[in-house]
Amino acid sequence: MKIATFNINGIKARITALSDWLRETSPDVALLQEIKSVDDGFPVSHFNDLGYNVETHGQKGFNGVAILSRLPLEDVTRGLPDPDGGEPDEQARWIEATVVGERAIRLCGLYLPNGNPVPGPKYDYKLAWMKRLHHRVQTLLALEDPAVICGDYNIIPQLEDAARPDSWREDALFRPESRAAFRKVVNLGLTDAFRAIHPHMPPAPPPGHYSFWDYQAGAWTRNNGIRIDHLLLTPQAADLLTDAQIDSEFRGRDKPSDHVPVWINLAA
Fold this sequence. Notes:
The chain has helices at residues 11-25, 44-49, 121-143, 176-186, 193-197, 235-238; strands spanning 2-7, 29-33, 53-57, 65-69, 73-78, 94-100, 104-111, 147-152, 191-192, 229-233, 241-246, 262-266. By secondary structure, the protein is an alpha+beta fold.
């Protein structure tokens, strides 16, 4: 089963680029972020025609997540619960479903808050959201089923995940508190799929190991990228992992997203 995550940066602007990628690479499941559309505005029939079932959790003009799947989706839920019983998250950043193939796999698609500027309420929201994520991962692990928790994490985990780490030192994506919160989630027992397939030592990975290049300052042509799109696997899913790659070439296509797809293969 080929499972991908892709921040498309707006379904209206990126429908052609997304459709081309789907036709060329044929993922079984694609978890999308920043669809920037209400549910009724998402072009469901277009992706049905491409062979995909569609589930969305949208929001007007901002955020929004979706799942496209060639396989049936069951038990779809939207929104990340508050472990303290507080109000539901007002922003559309989390969607879950079980994909049913030869085995059932729980899919969690997320768009973690950016958090800038630091300090401020947006950064407080980011860290609070990560506490919600930590609690949800604990629950998923307790089920002892294969699960993939993936999306745009807006976290640069390590120095080698940025071409120029010094320029990100005070950014919410690389602040010590952000990275510590991410490690706390991973250390519950998750596997970073890309790093499991592509372990390496500093100072930097080969070109193509980033998943985001800003639109400004020639970041793509200079390969000034960062790796912030991650697929984290429960132990039961990690046991099935056979490959993980980044489709970096799509950043050079016409009217691209500033992110590119990251995908894994899980054994049947």
